Automatic annotation (TrEMBL):
Protein name: Succinate--CoA ligase [ADP-forming] subunit beta
Catalytic activity: succinate + ATP + CoA = succinyl-CoA + ADP + phosphate; GTP + succinate + CoA = succinyl-CoA + GDP + phosphate
Family: Belongs to the succinate/malate CoA ligase beta subunit family.
Chain ranges of the ATP-grasp domain: 9-55
UniProt-listed Enzyme Commission number(s): 6.2.1.5
HAMAP family registered for this protein in UniProt: Succ_CoA_beta
Pathway membership, UniProt: Carbohydrate metabolism; tricarboxylic acid cycle; succinate from succinyl-CoA (ligase route): step 1/1
GO cellular component, one term: succinate-CoA ligase complex
Enzyme class, UniProt record, top EC level: ligase
GO biological process: one example: succinyl-CoA metabolic process
Residues reported in the UniProt entry to bind ATP: K46, G53, R54, G55, E107, C110, E115
GO molecular function: ATP binding; magnesium ion binding; succinate-CoA ligase (ADP-forming) activity; succinate-CoA ligase (GDP-forming) activity
Species whose genome carries this gene: Rubripirellula obstinata
Cofactor annotation remark: Binds 1 Mg(2+) ion per subunit.
Length: 394
């Protein structure tokens, strides 16, 4: 789950991670009121969307309107807010379609002496979180990794222990941070690592991380993603989700307990189990097709969830066929077959439907599908299923 910068900074502040004062605004009047409240001559108006590269992004309506604007008075704040709110911002991460800006964050300015980069992700190979820093703050980290990877410095840390002092000193030396700034970094870096672990983050990025003229270390950005599988431990985070930022079908699937990711192909996939879903997409590609989605209905899928899954799949105008690939382990094949039949009555299938069942009570499940009045193409195994759905959608 992603959240906005202003929400991330609220959490940072509570966790003891230094940030600047700021106020979220949904109208130009609110933005001006926020500027007056901050009482700082310099303020920055930042578009709030779930995408990076906002500073270099521009709106579709006005190519000269940047997604982040430094302002020196209330009139400039109003102009920036009016130029962003309700407009579509296009950045390197949004694609050409862009994202509509529903609110801006008005933040007090500061004396920036240096801009750095800081990010934390989980290193699956090392089975630990890894803190990454770079001298190249304000630049897309993907560009740095591609062109100057030697400028990215990494330290893995034990989530139970956190980032240790010697690791901070090592990173400060590589970044050229000394004196009072190094003392500030000695508090900042362990604090952000604790935040990452305590909130079950999957990614936490600060770009730029700044050192001010008076040697303070401050998070000038907050790009945070939480592990959705751990959100049950953080019910207080759920209200922070902004469904207007999500792909509508993905938000709908989430409300039904389905794991769904929309893709650009034309073959809908309905599978139980993430590994099986990945394999299904791979074999569709192998046989010349293009999957339209990743969809895991889970091991205990019921008729309501299967029906909702079909409605989501068939609601995509690009979907020209559906492949159902089910292994009946927790859920018996007869249960899945009954759910498919019920979904067929509710939804109706106007595109080719290929079904491959395997597992407990598979013969009974296949018989149920063969005897129903739904036009189903039965498949014996995953390869047979992939070949049939690719042929049926061409």
């Amino acid at each position: 789950m992603k959240i906005h910068e202003y929400q991330g900074k609220q959490l940072f502040r509570q966790a003891g991670v230094p940030v600047l004062d700021g106020v979220m605004a949904k109208t130009a009047d609110d933005a001006v009121a926020a500027y007056d409240k901050l009482g700082n001559k310099i303020a920055v108006v930042k578009s709030q969307i779930h995408a990076g590269g906002r500073g270099k992004g521009t709106t579709k309506e006005n190519p000269d309107q940047r997604g982040v604007v430094v302002c020196k008075n209330a009139d400039e704040v109003r102009a920036a807010a009016e130029g962003l709110i309700g407009k579509t911002l296009v950045t390197i991460q949004t694609g050409e379609e862009g994202k509509e800006v529903h609110q801006v964050y008005v933040e007090a300015g500061c004396d920036i002496a240096r801009e750095l980069y800081l990010g934390i992700v989980v290193d699956r190979a090392a089975m630990k979180p890894v803190l990454m820093v770079s001298t190249e703050g304000g630049v897309e980290i993907e560009t740095v990794a591609e062109e100057t990877p030697e400028l990215i410095f990494k330290e893995h840390f034990d989530p139970a222990v956190g980032l240790e002092g010697f690791q901070v000193r090592k990173l400060c030396k590589k970044l050229g941070i000394t004196g009072a700034a190094a003392k500030a970094a000695a508090k900042f870096m362990p604090a952000i690592c604790r935040f990452f672990v305590d909130f079950d983050c999957s990614m936490c990025e600060i770009n730029p991380l700044v050192i001010t003229g008076d040697d303070q270390v401050i998070a000038l950005d907050a790009k945070i993603e939480f592990d959705s599988n751990a959100l049950y431990r953080h019910p207080d985070l759920l209200p922070l989700r902004d469904e207007t930022e999500d792909e509508p079908s993905e938000a709908r699937a989430s409300r039904s307990g389905l794991s769904f990711v929309k893709l650009e192909g034309n073959i809908g996939c309905l599978v139980n189990g993430a590994g099986l879903a990945m394999s299904t997409m791979d074999i569709i590609k192998y046989h010349g097709g293009q999957p339209a989605n990743f969809l895991d209905v889970g091991g205990g899928a019921n008729a309501e969830q299967v029906t909702e899954a079909f409605q989501i799949l068939l609601g995509d105008p690009n979907c020209k066929g559906v492949l159902v690939n089910i292994f009946g382990g927790i859920a018996r094949c007869t249960t899945i077959a009954a759910a498919i039949i019920e979904a067929g009555k509710t939804v109706g299938f106007e595109v080719p439907l290929v079904v491959r069942l395997e597992g407990t009570e598979v013969e009974e499940g296949r018989k149920m599908l063969a005897e129903c009045d739904i036009d189903i193409i039965n498949a014996t195994d995953i390869t047979d299923a992939a070949k049939k759905i690719v042929a049926a959608t061409k």
